Amino acid sequence: MIYREAGQFKTTYRADQAVFPIPQDRVAMVLILLAAYVGIPLFASEYLFLAILIPFLILSMAAIGLNILVGYCGQLSLGTGGFMAVGAYAAYNLALRVPELNLLVVFLLAGGCAALVGGVFGIPSLRIKGFYLAVATLAAQFFLEWMFSRVGWFTNYTPSGSVAAPRLIIFGYVFRTPAEKYLLCLFLVTIAALAAKNLVRGRIGRSWMAIRDMDIAAEIIGIRPVQAKLSAFAVSSFMIGISGALWGFVHLGSWEPLAFDINRSFNLLFMVIIGGLGSILGCFLGAAFITMVPVFLNQLPTILGIPISTAMISHLEFMIFGALIVFFLIAEPHGLARLWAVGKQKLRLWPFPH
Amino acid sequence: MGPFIEVVLGGLLAGVLYSLVALGFVLIFKASGVFNFAQGAMVLFAALSLARLMSDELTVAHYLGAAAVLGLAVGYGVVAAWRRLGPASAPGPRVGWGVIAAFALIGVAVAASFGVRGWPGWVAIPAAAAIMGLLAVAIERLVLRPLVNQEPIILFMATIGIAFFIDGFGQTIWGSGIYNLPLGIPKDPMFLLESVFDGGILVNKLDIFAAAIAGVLVAVLAVFFQKTRIGRALRAVADDHQAAQSVGIPLNQIWIIVWTVAGFVALVAGIVWGSALGVQFSIALVALKALPVLILGGFTSVPGAIIGGLIIGMGEKLAEVYLGPTLGGGIENWFAYMLALVVLLFRPQGLFGERIIERI
Q1: What is the full DSSP assignment across B43-99?
Q2: Are A146 and B162 inside 8 Å of each other by CB?
């Protein structure tokens, strides 16, 4: 009744190509952004920022990057953790060796480094497909993990192998409180989401999707697979790299290569799949789900007052997490974004059944 | 020359261990097109079940439960054999379930009479195999059947979910320490060909034992696939799902069988790996070692898994010894992947995989 596009006529091409063609969507988006930028910083507690909101935002950004590769271009990748590590260590080294650089520039350059590395590890995708490619991207994961733990230059020869990020100073302003850090992440994630949304609607996004749907057919209608695949790897790694830098600088503060191990890759892939392949909204939904479930599971025994040893909790967490993944895949293999689309369709017709 | 041969031989024997894990992957991928990431978790689960059933430290419930599962499996086997051999007197479904339940009860009763005591290997190994069979049935019923006809990536993700679940489940019920397998498999090193080389070649008896087991396993699998009715059905399904289904091969049963066989292979791999490293969580990570073997040999080829394992094992050892010192060590984590990647650039379907033909 309230939510429908009937009667909203588009009279210009601009209106037809808008990101949110329906005014209700635009209003909703403004409200969500207002809540995120103004509402949450006013009311959220420090714990909420540090344990949930900041990881959620950073991982959403990584999930957007991964979704471009897996969901839009159809190239299954298990090397996400490695590319995040590239971003984090590139940012660390840039900030360390060129201290006069603005931190935002450092993040962008770190993303650029990750894009380069991603492009290099994307080259096999021109020849290898499907699960063979997925396993081949594990080569990137293990090689990068090894490189950052064994090659001393990347960690500035710290004996422990763990590196600490410098203070977050951008244009002379020091980001100290969790709320400030949250706003920084939110700002970058907003830009990333907007950029991704526009990229996938444009020429390049359409060429990715054509490659995903059938690469030989795409090649025949004139899409260059080399450019399409490598650009997907580069753009995806760029975002993953920036999110890796944020993960290190904003969330962890100090880290070692283990922070970007293969479980990180799997986690991100879960987010993309549970959220919905080929959907920007899905990245946020999936990231929210996967970030929140372990926090929730961890606290469940305390809430219920069941005394269990911590080892047992972690095993049960594994079990429930695995079962939930399977359950969600069975309930809605196309992810939470599809659930949202179904709900929206219902809302369009409500209160009439047809 | 002696040290070089020693490295190569050690690598080949280590490669056999990787092949054992890769075999399970190949079986499932061939029969159902599922890339089963849970194979490593299954290896851990099988090894944990076996090691813990042979120890004395469990509660009565563990022994009784395992005995019930073993009884179920034996009962199921008896009923299936009965139906196959004497169709005239074959029991109906109700009697069949009754027989199976009776066997489970007998199992529980026998276990109860023994009380809390570790089982000998000849009981514990079939029990662990029965547990793997039950796991296969559960996976087929609860995960694969609802997800039938989904995209491969969804099924792959589901198997990662299964892997998480089995990892947690196994450690919840069996414990999460480091356990040894008291099967009496020799572990000490020995020298070969002392007459040919100065000092001979140092090999581990366990590795030779593993190689022998792998050989037997592959022979058994080959006979099973080539000579039995079920094996023929499995090959038909692997060739063409729809054609197999249209001539009356029940896909669901085939999946249960193939996951059970993969479970048995996991048990064998678990025995060997568990004897080598001790039964502990890190066994689940051998799956990551088996992946490059898989892509090198090809997802669909059993000989590929064996030869891929040998190549990877040998390459890894050679690289560790001759390249490791210059690169700073620890390269075994990624070297196998790089080796497989280079091979894939020339043969995208792996060395022995079926040629990928693409049509519009």
Answers
A1: HHHHHHHHHHHTSS-S-HHHHHHHHHHHHHHHHHHHHHHHHHH-STT---HHHHHHH
A2: no
Q: Supply the Cα-derived Rg of chain A in whole angstroms.
A: 21
pLDDT at B20: 86
**Averaged pLDDT of chain B:** 82
pLDDT of residue B227: 87
User: In this predicted structure, which of A33-42, A276-285, A304-313, B51-60 has the lowest mean pLDDT?
Assistant: A304-313
pLDDT at A2: 67
Cβ atoms of B124 and B50 within 8 Å: the answer is yes
Partner-chain residue, chosen from B156, B176, B340, that has the shortest CB–CB distance to A315: B176
Residue A204: inside a domain: yes
Q: How far apart are CA A23 and CA B37, in angstroms?
A: 45
- Determine, for residues A316 and B168 on separate chains, whether the beta-carbon distance falls below 8 Å: yes
- A126-164 pLDDT, tens digit per residue, is 888 888 888 888 889 999 988 888 888 888 888 877 888
Q: State the ipTM, two decimals.
A: 0.85
**What's the residue count for chain B?**
360
User: Tokens in use for A50?
Assistant: 């540090």
How many domains are there within chain A?
A: 1
Distance CA A218, CA A224 (A): 8
The token duo for B214 is: 């792998």
Q: Which domain holds residue A165?
A: 47-349
Judged by CB atoms closer than 8 Å, whether chains meet at A316 and B146 is answered as no
Which of B295, B300, B354 is the mutation pick for testing A, counting most A CBs within 10 A?
B295
Spell out the residues 6+ positions from residue A281 whose beta carbon is closer than 8 angstroms to its own: A275, A337, A340
Q: Residue A221's domain is classified under what CATH number?
A: 1.10.3470
What pLDDT shows up at residue A239? 95
Nearest to A329 among B161, B163, B349 (CB): B161
Q: How far is B351 from chain A (nearest CA, A)?
A: 12
**Residues B209, B183: Cα–Cα separation, whole Å:** 12
Q: What is the pLDDT of residue B302?
A: 82
In a domain, residue A11? The reply is no
Name the packing angle between helices A310-331 and A280-304 (round to 10°). 140
Which one, of B262, B108, B270, B284, lies nearest residue B183 by Cα? B270
State which residue of chain A sits closest to B281, comparing Cα positions. A315
Residues of A with Cβ-Cβ distance to B38 under 8 angstroms: none
Residues from chain B that touch A270, judged by Cβ atoms under 8 A, are 157, 160
| Structure tokens that stand for B167 in this block | 């990892």
Quick check: A217 and B157 CB within 8 A?
Answer: no
Of A128, A150, A325, the CB nearest to B157: A325
Tell whether A259 is covered by a domain. Answer: yes
Identify the band that residue B90 occupies on the pLDDT scale cut at 50, 70 and 90: low
| Contact residues on chain A for B160, CB-CB shorter than 8 A | 266, 269-270, 322, 325
DSSP state of B118: P
Name the amino acid, one letter, at A245.
A
* pLDDT score recorded for residue A203: 92
- A342 found inside a domain: yes
